Amino acid sequence: MKRLLALSAFVAGVALHAAMPAPEGFTSIKSLGGIDEYRLDANGLQVLLMPDRSAPVLTFMVTYRVGSRNEVTGTTGATHLLEHLMFKGTPNFNREKGNNVDQLLERTGALYNATTWLDRTNYYQTLGSEHLAMVIEMEADRMKNLYLKESDRRPEMTVVRNEFERGENSPIQSLIKEVYQAAFVAHPYHHSTIGHRSDIEKVSIEKLRVFYETFYWPDNATVTLIGDFQTPEALAWVKKFYGAIPKSPQPIEEIYTEEPEQLGPRRVIVKRVGQLGVVAIGFKNPAALHHDWAATQILADVLTDGANSRLYRALTDKGLTTGVFPYNGYFRDPSLCLFFASLAPGATHEAVEKILLEEIEKVKADGVTADEVNAAIAKELTALAFNRDGSFAIAGQINEDIAVGDWQNFVQIGDKYQAVTPEQVQAAANKYFNIDQSTTGWFVPIVPGAAK
After folding, report:
1. pLDDT, tens digit, for every residue of 157-174?
2. 19-242: which CATH number, 3.30.200.20, 3.30.830.10, 1.20.950.20, 3.40.50.1110?
């Protein structure tokens, strides 16, 4: 615990300073919170290094700035399906040679995987530090030399389709998807990362190749290395294996679509097999790097975090819900701050929704107390410390900040929380938690065998 709190204090308090001198072929960009940023001159690859020699392990993560926000109708889910195909090998690393990704990494005892989200895709390995050169060579190779075969797409499509079906069977996941699709009509956050079933099944290998050839370039990627390594040696390997890859031959298109102003409340109802209902209300929130984002997170905590939170006292303590929780979207573009209330037996959607909105209106009218804000800030700072325990946890958090547009927010977010005042929380409630910018979703369970 002492190590976690020390890490949190260190990361929060370190000022910006010049990065270490860069070896030939790199430019030093900046250093902040113990993280050194370099740029590989040959192709613009961003490199983030954070040495920690407390244990002989490290995490190597590659973040590509491509996610489901880069998809359109017909290719929804393509980024995620391509992520699966990234494990199918290259001419240099393949199953026939006995050195495919899985074969290489399982021999080392590595923990490894990949994930796709709205703004990014990442690939990572946590393993003994003596294997660093191997993982850099493998990741650099599959950045541009990937097999993309129809014979691989077909079976992998069924795996992704199974993931889709599991999500459809989850009341919360299916409700989130429907709420987002109602809340966003123009912006690509409308599409869930898993995609639509028909797109998953029918997207061609040619379209997946277009995605790969459009977005998988060093100048659209960040390499993050956390743990036990020597900086000069690590940079030399990055240069050796990534340096020969050219930058993208043309500028990678930015997403310029903005969601038009919402002119009234929206509502969706999801009816599926289940036992208990759920009420979800989402309000348009600011982008992750916006100066108001921290205030919306503290507001969400005041309303829902813990037995002393306002919605817990108003709903759960009174036997109307089994629990309440928020999901404040942390994304590159404005998204949603969602509140979920899981109904207790006998409670009605109408009653729970009414009380939830009334509690939000009380905050807008009367504000919140300093004690409530201070407690929420303390919880966020504690969560930051626990969520950064170990090289993978740190790399994963930095990955999300790369995705939203600035890795430095990894260091700065603690200070942003501590700067939030009760007045800013009330102002955020009035600015963002407006019923005309809301989307409400009900999960209405269909109980098997029950009379209709």
Report:
1. 999 999 999 998 898 999
2. 3.30.830.10
